[in-house]
Amino acid sequence: MTQEEAVIMALQDLGGKAHQKDIYKRAMKYATFGGKTPDATIRALLQRCDRVRHSKDAPGLWELVSYQEELAKLYKQNKEMIGIVETLRKLLELPAVFERIANECMNATQTQNVSQRVNIVNMLNTLKANLNISVSDETNSRLKKFAAENSSPDSLAIDYLKNINSLMESLNERMESFIQKPTIGTVVLEQNNFGEKGKLTGKVKNNKMIEK
Fold first, then answer.
1. Predicted structure pTM score
2. Where are the alpha helices (DSSP H) in the chain?
């Protein structure tokens, strides 16, 4: 059991709401909190855990976020994830992939002589024809200019690639953050521990809920 899971279990044991010092005493039964400042470790865990918050009606106490609130938050996160997947799907469609490859190739071979650049353009156009895809006017225009005698780096194309790479990095970071959060399934499995208003019912003994 992780330290964070121990803190959640301790709060469940204490009825869903308790003072930090009481949470610490109870959490010690489930996990080890070493170091010189275990109280600070507990405080840090409470502050960063999405499933715990300062009590709204009892200052100085910490409480578990209700099942209903947590589930609503997870549904919202799930909707955001669907949006991320849709964005990734569009980025992975053949036209978008071809444009990235074509612009990367042209950026990497900008200093080559005219004949070499013509060969690259012919190769890319052949690939585009074989895939039977349509690409943006910007990419088609750059393919024509790239084979010209006085071709120069296309700032718009370079900015396009930077924006795409930045978007991919952002999406990756957001997906990583979602992976580390509880899933809707894990919350649903715990709903029997909560009453209609999202408060714990009964007490926990030996990791099992005892109904009142």
1. 0.43
2. 3-13, 20-27, 38-48, 67-91, 94-108, 114-131, 137-146, 155-179, 184-188
